[in-house]
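User: Could you check the structure of this?
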Amino acid sequence: MARDTTIGASFGGARLNELEIQAVVRVGNKNAWRRTLTFWNESIPKCCWTTLHPPFYIFLTWKGAVNAMKINSLISCARSLLLAAGLSVAGVAAASEAVVSADWLVAHLDDPNVRVVEVSVEPGKFERAHIPGAVNFRWHTELVDPVRRDIAPREQWEQLLSTAGIGPDTTVVLYGDNNNWFAAWGAWIFRYYGHADVKLLDGGRNKWEADRRPLSNRPARHAATEYRVSSTQPALRARLADVLAVVEGERQAKLLDIRSPAEFEGRIFAPPGVQELAIRAGHVPGAKNVPWGSVVRDDGTFKSTDELRALYAGIGIDGSEPVIVYCRIGERSAHSWFVLSQILGYDAVQYDGSWTEYGNSVGVPISNPAGTVWGGT
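Assistant: Sure, the predicted structure tokens are below.
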């Protein structure tokens, strides 16, 4: 028997001509699919906003699988709801894209509702030059708890966002070097701590510089806020026990290793020059390998959704089952998590413990085609 599946739509909007719909498909009590839509309507009168008190929620229920859900049917359904509420919708456009173009960002650099955040791997890069108005989040000190090996604690996260002038309704656009490796990590933490309006700059810092977009070395000054986390999303994070449950057949999910083929096969323990190592090489049994770089073009921009779906479908990932994504320490897998969950809308979670936890754990099985199971033997 098919389970009841609920579509929820949260209606809100920061500007008078914009009505945003945060649509969430839920199976039971778990978010399985998420999109943000924007309805543009120049004719919505100001009084509507005092009447609607956004956000509010509308839920629909139908029988069937989550992957039967189509974005166009949701747009049509939500449009009908607006019309039924007496709102004249001049045009409907999907704004579900969690990725913004450089042109979009240039047009919004002075928008007080938009905050640009750089998260780069290389220290000092932000200080030399950055996108005008951007603030800098240091991944190795501000986005993590280095002592506990954990993400930034809640209080630290709230202080970081408050200092950056970010409020609960701020549109956050992240970018960074290495094709947004750690920018995607930052996006994952934003989502973990319940901030919904988070986007990545397509192509990241490299493409911005290559296209000779504006840069500045002046520190940005934004009025501080008092940011408070209203809810967390622990379901976006997988733990070692969750991975083992899949390996041992106690849980149904796909395992996706996005490291290089050499790492996946156990020919090397880690990329050259890195310090975080595991004592064993190889991968989690049953995992499939799609290197993170496969999802971007030569200029660092994301491939089309059709290309991305085809890429993952080739290893059996099509959105019909949950996906657990991992790499070595969680930064590269955050990038692929972003593609799967935020761009394609698949039920994907990040295993940030990744291979440095799994490969160092006692009593867990590994797969090692290259035979370098222990040390260098």
